[in-house]
Amino acid sequence: MIIRLEDLEFAQLTPDMELLPFCSKDTDLNNFLAEDAKNYAADLMAVTYLFIDTEKQQIAAYFSLLNDKVAYDPQAKGIWNRINRHISNNKRRRSYPSAKIGRLAVATGYEHAGLGSQILNLIKSYLVTEPKLGCRFLTVDAYADATDFYRKNDFDYFTTLDTFDSTRLMYFDLKPFRDNITNYKN
Questions:
Q1: What is the tens place of the pLDDT at every residue in 76-119?
Q2: Domain that holds residue 33
Q3: In the β-sheet with 137-143, what is the strand arrangement from edge to edge?
């Protein structure tokens, strides 16, 4: 079963908003939304967006975004060189602006319906179609069990040093995505 984002209500979480129920298979993701997301919003640390199933009166999925940077790591020179190959010489730096997916969660009962990939495409499009700030990359500290999902959505590992860690730093280059959208529209 495919669920379309268009069939869900989209809302930005505010500190005074009454939260509808949300339950995913991951306790940390459930706790973030229930206990921390409003504080992050109040302190301007991250913005959380909700996809609400108004029929069932529950949150089907959510994600949070915050600022980040992709920075040079001398222990990951090979990957850094691969990133730099796609940046013109006169623009090369030791770090590049990025947005970070702080959390992305889909509620139990909505998994495997395509919501996660649709949300990633929405985030990518949001960052490049009418940009409000410079942002070359989209990053995520992906849980180890979610890395395959991000790989399927064209994210790459930033380093091999975290191969056996509980999270892996991954990135997506927004410029080719933007260029593909622009070429598609023309």
A1: 667 767 776 767 766 767 678 899 999 999 999 999 999 999 99
A2: 5-185
A3: 9-12, 47-53, 58-71, 95-106, 137-143, 167-173, 156-157
Give CA–CA dist 5/40, Å, rounded.
24
Cβ partners under 8 Å of residue 137, min gap 6: 68, 70, 96, 97, 98, 99, 171, 172, 173, 174
Residues 6+ positions from 121 with CB-CB distance below 8 Å: 153
In the chain, the number of structural domains is 1
Q: The domain that contains 52 carries what CATH number?
A: 3.40.630.30
How far, in Å, CA of 135 to CA of 68, rounded?
9
pLDDT one-digit tens code per residue, 26-68: 999 999 999 999 999 999 999 999 999 999 999 999 999 999 9
